[in-house]
Amino acid sequence: MPADDSTDTKGGTGEPAIRAATVDSNGIEKRQYDHIGLKYNSMHELPAVLPEKPSVLAALGDVRGKRCLDLACGTGRYTAFLSQLGACTVHGYDISPAMVEGAQKTFPSDLYPYLHFAVADCSKLELLPTPNEPFDLIFAGWFLNYAGTESDLTSMFRVIEAHMIERGKFVGITTNVDDPCVTKDKKDFYGLDVEVRNKEYRDPETGIKLGIVARIRAHTDTPIEIDCFQFGKEVYERCADKAGLRLTWKEVLVPQDAKVNPKYWIRYLERPTISIIEAVKQ
Questions:
Q1: Which domain holds residue 60?
Q2: Is residue 187 part of a domain?
């Protein structure tokens, strides 16, 4: 994979692109969002991102009164969403100091006393603060897709399993795990371009084929580029099983807006950008 350039003018917009993350064969790149910060929020209104919230909402169920953990919380979008749904407290951790600083600025503690943000590496159990008690619900949006090996992904699932109560639940957003055309680029796809950078990505530790590596370019005012892994469903299920979790895959839902022609979403639903994961302890 290419080196982690901070800007790139590729794409024809004339605007330099902020490269959020460049992944490599050794796994997730640390502090990959440091030079984005609050600029990341500009992605939230892209059409490709709009199906996330209705899909997550349906998977979460009743959040009222629950203690929640948000892994790789970024600027706190879903941390706050969980609180709005009635969670009694939500702890958000992210490896990027810039993203956590953005979350704290957006949701200051004096106005949002039930939200708690801190910098931490969520990918390894020994690097995440030990809670006073496990959490009822754990959420992770765009976290698992930065695992570069099966051991990385298994480690992330072990973090989830260790921090969850016995009858707790995990809900996560990741890349599409069963796209039949996964090796094909997606151009002008609801505000995104998805370029396949490695059509046959193999685990550098074992040589097993895991999926692809893709570069996502967001057509925001200042274009943002994000490199990530896109593993197959069987890889996720295998790694979750090793960590003591049982996965189910939830339906991807599009926004129900009377002003939008339902046909607008046909192309999206053929190749959604997301998969929604639910996991419980075995």
A1: 28-178+232-281
A2: no
Give the least confident one: 1-5, 38-42, 184-188, 194-198. 1-5
Domain count of the fold of the chain:
1
**What is the full DSSP assignment across the chain?**
-----SEE-TTSSSSPEEEEE--BTTBPPTTTTTTTGGGGGGGGGSGGGTTHHHHHHHHH---TT-EEEEET-TTSHHHHHHHHTT-SEEEEEES-HHHHHHHHHHS-TTT-TTEEEEE--TTSGGGSPPPSS-EEEEEEES-GGG--SHHHHHHHHHHHHHTEEEEEEEEEEEE-S--TTTTS-EEEETTEEEEEEEEEEE-TTT--EEEEEEEEEE-SSS-EEEEEEEE-HHHHHHHHHHTTEEEEEEPP-----TTS-GGGGHHHHHS-SEEEEEEEE-
Is residue 120 predicted with pLDDT exceeding 50? yes
- Whether residue 7 has pLDDT greater than 70: no
- List the CATH number of the domain containing 271: 3.40.50.150
Whole-number pLDDT of residue 153: 98
Determine, yes or no, domain membership for 220: no
Q: Is residue 189 part of a domain?
A: no
2 inside domain: no
